[in-house]
């Protein structure tokens, strides 16, 4: 029995993500929460002939609590998306408060759930969830994930394009590490399961790296004010959620990159710190998943000089984003009690 919950379920990501979770035969219950439209979305999905029983709630009448009751996996795509000209950090002002409130709901109703954060800026919203959980004394770093899967999905697609065969994209695996915004997105193309053409010009390599780092902007620009990636994000989010669910159900050896607290695995994190030459509280790296969430943080291993330079450029930005998230919660609790 697995209860999956989507918070922000009526949105551009929320709806297709809920559809894909409803299509997952391992999900037996699907809880949908949003400030609008969830009863309609739930009624619609409930007619699909798959096992999950679907329920949708709105804020009044303890809707959040009802949605979260008994949740095993909670995915959060609630919040505002970017418009052209904005960075992900520009979303912080609105999304930080939304994520803090939803995290409070999870901490008080489903503190053991695995929490998968999609809402941007992920580099800061994941620390926000952690800080809220700490205030309620229910924090387990193994159970908190920033969803960076879309970067991995994009890397697979763009590498397959360069190799001239899109049918390869489902098999191409490129670790993408760091965080989830611009220069903090670091593709380790030297570790691609399908090596790049040996004669690839430096300029083409740089273009590929830039496209993976700024793939989100490509979509924001094309949507021209209509938001950011939703369908590819729903696909990526459902893929990651499916991996977490399979691991929790006992499947061994499942590995996926995710933005996690380095506290989730002490030995992995000290190896990572050595590699980075810097202590970071959160970092996206390949993670082995297990029944309790993060089983192991896998260090970067051998990377190229170009990748080392990319990581060096990512670290100060990541540090700043992490501190912003932590400070936001500390500030909020100066003037309010941590309660739902
Ligand atoms: N991690 C990643 O790779 C990606 C993250 N994102 C982020 O995901 C977020 C959502 O994007 P979209 O679905 O396109 O936006 P959207 O505006 O289409 O949907 C967001 C939904 O959240 C709901 N919402 C707002 N406040 C809420 C609250 N307090 N409780 C519950 N629901 C609430 C809204 O009613 C709306 O239905 C954005 O922050 C976006 O930047 C988007 C793409 C990729
Ligand atoms: O670009 C955005 O704002 C949404 C996002 O995170 C992505 O598509 O990677």
TrEMBL record:
Gene Ontology, cellular component aspect: cytosol
Pfam families in the record: Ldh_1_C, Ldh_1_N
Residue sites binding NAD(+) per the record: 8-14, 34, 95, 118-120, 233
Enzyme Commission code(s) on record: 1.1.1.37
Catalytic activity of the protein: (S)-malate + NAD(+) = oxaloacetate + NADH + H(+)
EC category name: oxidoreductase
Ranges where the Lactate/malate dehydrogenase C-terminal domain occurs: 148-328
Active site: 180
Binding-site positions, substrate: 82, 88, 120, 154
Keywords in alphabetical order: NAD, Oxidoreductase, Tricarboxylic acid cycle
Domain Lactate/malate dehydrogenase N-terminal, first and last residues per copy: 3-146
A Gene Ontology BP annotation from the UniProt entry: malate metabolic process
GO molecular function list: L-malate dehydrogenase (NAD+) activity
Family of this protein: Belongs to the LDH/MDH superfamily. MDH type 1 family.
Subunit structure: Homodimer.
The protein, known as: Malate dehydrogenase
């Amino acid at each position: 029995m697995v209860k999956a919950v989507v918070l922000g379920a009526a949105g551009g990501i929320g709806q297709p993500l809920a559809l894909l979770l409803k299509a997952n035969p391992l999900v037996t219950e699907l809880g949908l929460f949003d400030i609008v439209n969830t009863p309609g979305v739930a009624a619609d999905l409930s007619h699909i002939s798959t096992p999950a029983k679907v329920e949708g709630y709105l804020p009044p009448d303890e809707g959040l609590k009802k949605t979260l009751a008994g949740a095993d996996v909670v995915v959060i795509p609630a919040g505002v998306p970017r418009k052209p000209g904005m960075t992900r950090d520009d979303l912080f002002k609105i999304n930080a408060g939304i994520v803090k409130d939803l995290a409070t709901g999870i901490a008080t109703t489903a503190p053991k759930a695995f929490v998968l954060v999609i809402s941007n800026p992920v580099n800061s919203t994941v620390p926000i969830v952690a800080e809220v959980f700490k205030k309620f004394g229910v924090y387990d770093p193994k159970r908190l994930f920033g969803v960076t899967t879309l970067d991995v999905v994009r890397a697979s697609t763009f590498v397959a394009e360069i190799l001239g065969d899109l049918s390869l994209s489902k098999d191409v695996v490129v670790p993408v590490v760091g965080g989830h915004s611009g220069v903090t997105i670091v593709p380790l193309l030297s570790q691609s399961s399908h090596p790049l053409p040996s004669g690839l010009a430096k300029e083409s390599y740089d273009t590929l790296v830039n496209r993976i780092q700024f793939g989100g902007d490509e979509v924001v620009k094309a949507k021209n004010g209509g938001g950011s990636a939703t369908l590819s994000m729903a696909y990526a989010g459902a893929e990651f959620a499916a991996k977490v669910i399979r691991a929790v159900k006992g499947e061994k050896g499942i590995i996926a990159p995710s933005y996690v607290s380095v506290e989730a695995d002490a030995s992995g994190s000290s190896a990572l710190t050595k590699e980075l030459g810097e202590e970071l509280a959160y970092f996206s790296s390949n993670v082995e998943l297990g029944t309790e969430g993060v089983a192991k943080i896998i260090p970067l291993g051998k990377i190229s000089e170009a990748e080392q330079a990319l990581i060096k450029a990512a670290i100060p930005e990541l540090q700043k984003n992490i501190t912003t998230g932590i400070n936001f919660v500390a500030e909020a609790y100066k003037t309010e009690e941590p309660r739902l």
